[in-house]
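TL;DR need structure tokens for one chain.
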Amino acid sequence: IINGEISPIKQIFGFERINLAVNQTKEVFFPLTVRHLLTIVRHGTKWLHPGSYDILIGQQHMHTFKLYGQSIQWASKIHASSSNENI
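>> reply
TL;DR here they are.
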């Protein structure tokens, strides 16, 4: 619970179905952007919160990173114009 709002414990930010033959490997790429870290609260406002974030790949791989600072309300118009993402 952050600022009275409940955040999801886990969420999917990328998925790709691939076909593999026996003993075949393939590389897949999922770009993680700040957009994937936003929490959308019940009134539709978007927030970026500091804290530890765990990236899980399958059930065997995990990477943790931390964001420092204070929670900020995400201003979509400003950030969407500086990148080509519609948030």
